[in-house]
Design goal:
By secondary structure, the chain is mainly α. It has one domain. The chain contains three helices and no strands. It is elongated, with a radius of gyration of 20 Å.
Length: about 110
C-alpha cells in the first residue's frame, strides 16, 4: 500500500530542495566571480595583450567586481597591486559565499 506523506513532511522536503537550489546558485555565482578575478590577476601578472577582446572583457568585469578593494593596498608595482587587491576581493567573495551557502542550507 502507498503511504501518503503528511503536509508537514512535503513542506519540509520542498523547503530543503529550495534551499539546496539557492545554495547551489550562490556557490556557482561565487565561483564564477572568483574565477573572473583570478583570470584577471593571471593576465596582469603575465602581461597579457590588453588590446585583446578577451583580456579586456575579463579586466572590465574584474574591475566592476572588485569595487572597494581596488586600492586597499598601493604598492609601487602594478602587478603586485592587482594581485593583492583583486586577490583580497576574491577571498572576500569566497568566504562570504561559503558563509551564505552554509546559512541557506541550515535554514532549509
Amino acid at each position: 500500500p502507498r503511504v501518503r506523506r503528511s503536509l508537514r513532511d512535503r513542506t519540509a522536503g520542498a523547503r530543503r530542495r529550495t534551499a539546496g537550489a539557492i545554495a547551489t546558485a550562490i556557490s556557482v555565482v561565487t565561483t564564477l566571480v572568483v574565477l573572473i578575478l583570478a583570470v584577471h590577476i593571471v593576465f596582469v601578472a603575465f602581461e597579457a595583450n590588453t588590446a585583446n577582446d578577451l583580456v579586456r572583457w575579463f579586466g572590465d568585469r574584474a574591475t566592476d567586481l572588485c569595487w572597494q578593494f581596488k586600492d586597499v593596498f598601493q604598492p609601487a608595482d602594478h602587478k603586485t597591486e592587482v594581485a593583492v587587491n583583486y586577490g583580497l576581493a576574491a577571498l572576500v567573495y569566497l568566504v562570504v559565499g561559503r558563509v551564505l551557502v552554509g546559512l541557506v542550507r541550515r535554514l532549509g
